[in-house]
Amino acid sequence: MKKLASVVVGLIAAAAPANAADMPVKAPVIAPVYSWTGLYFGLGAGLLSSRNQATTGTVQVGPLVFNASPLINSDSLNNAAFRGSGYLGFNWQVAPKWVIGLEGDVGFADRTTTFEGFFAPGAENGDSADSFSIRTTWDASARARAGFLLTPATLIYATGGAAWQHYEVSSTCASTGNITLPKVGFGNCSSFSPATLTDAVTRPGWTAGAGFETAFWGNWIARGEYRYADFGIGTTTFTRSSTIPAANPFSQTVEVKSHEHLLTIGLAYKVGDPVAASNNGGARAAYPVKAPPPAMMSWSGAYLGLAGGPRVSEARATTTALTAVTGFVFTPLGAAGMATSQQINGIAGRGEVYAGINWQVMQWVLGLEDDFGFADQTTTLLGYQFSPAAGGVFGGNSTFAMQTTWDASARVRIGYLVSPTLLVYVTGGAAWQRFSVTSTDGNPAELPQVIVNSADKVGPTVGAGLETSLSKNWFARAAYRYADFGTATFTLARTGAAFLKSETDTFDVRLRSHTATFGVAYKVD
Predict the structure, then answer these.
(1) Do 32-280 and 290-525 agree at the fold level?
(2) pLDDT tens digits for 204-245?
(3) Is the separation of the CB atoms in 248 and 241 below 8 Å?
(4) Distance between terminal CA atoms of the chain?
(5) Which CATH entry fits the domain spanning 290-525: 2.40.160.20, 3.40.50.1000, 1.20.1600.10, 3.90.460.10?
(6) Which three-class secondary structure state does DSSP give residue 57?
(7) H or E stretch at 16
(8) HSE-up of 194 (CA within 13 Å, CB side)?
(9) Helix and strand totals (H; E) in the chain
(10) Could you tell me which of 177, 179, 165, 20 has the C-alpha nearest to residue 106?
(11) Averaged confidence pLDDT in the chain
């Protein structure tokens, strides 16, 4: 028996190498490749705020040509608009934590800003049939990018390059002299044609900015980006013919200086290998049915942050009543065709401090947040010693100006975790805005020469944004908010020994704001 057992063991030992040799060889296990290198394409949405300064350079009336600079010849036509865009680029991950790339984008934001009663900057007739406007349409850019990977899935970057902006400048000179009160200007337009002239301009310029991107589900990349663009000065000449031989031709040369601020929140898809293993498919796999495991990062807790970005104030001043010494009262209905309303929009850089608390419930994050911001910005209407519809012979030294300063809000937030490190959210609540209106009369005989009225307005605010975690306690965000502060009513009164012994002006200011912010916050454990 012992002999038999020894034989069996010997046979098994001899057969083992042969069996092993006959087994098929398994293919080597190849780890997936994760890299930011590759082609990507995406769609973006956000805010375009344009700052346009239009200035009349020269005026020709028949054979006479003169420089308009000694006159009131400049107006601000600022605006804000929703902007949609598409972008395409290629990245190279040149080191474990560095990414460089090239990118192009095309955006569209259709918005028109109009000055009523002007057919060119400074050419005021006071007739609502006349107007001067700037309409922004498409823009584009071609840029380089250089970024640093804070984590394998989170990139911060700077970008810069060439940019183009297409806009249309329009002049409408259609007044026929039906205004009951005389205005300082070039007279009515009844002898000039055509009534409306439009010049389409595509201006080249440069752009620079910064942003952050975070990868989720392998090949998808979310971004928040801010860029500034400068398109220099474009020149347009409006030429009309006149039925009066001595005034033929009649033309104005207008220069438009244009700047832009762009906030974009985008979503892109990277072709080929996924971006980073840390978030590859993590949005679904990382969340169990009941509660996240103890090792998972939590969004719950209090946080404090700092942010910056542009704030656009959209304001419109409208004269509702003007009373002179004779007791004559006119309103927009009493003065047929009078331009009684003007936009006084403004754009300024804004700093902000914000604080809040989050509660994470599964893939949802609920929170409360307060913020306080400051942006000192003043927009001035030249030639108005009161409000729109109240220009005068001393307009050269008269101004009507609106200044915005601090703002604040108290809001709720509701967000969804697209991945463990990427939160998209909506927010809404109450907002406050401090602003003042200053009227300066250029006639020293009418007192007081300077009148200031201030108001603190409250209104609703809504917005949206995205946040990404940079580490366990640090978070970056890109956000947009809209606020509506309703209408404030003011009354100005002056007395004097000149032609008008006394004058009282009542007007409304309708105020809204667009706020774009990029921020970094620290979450307390």
Answers:
(1) yes
(2) 999 999 999 999 988 999 999 999 999 999 999 999 998 888
(3) yes
(4) 73
(5) 2.40.160.20
(6) strand
(7) helix 2-22
(8) 6
(9) 2, 22
(10) 165
(11) 84
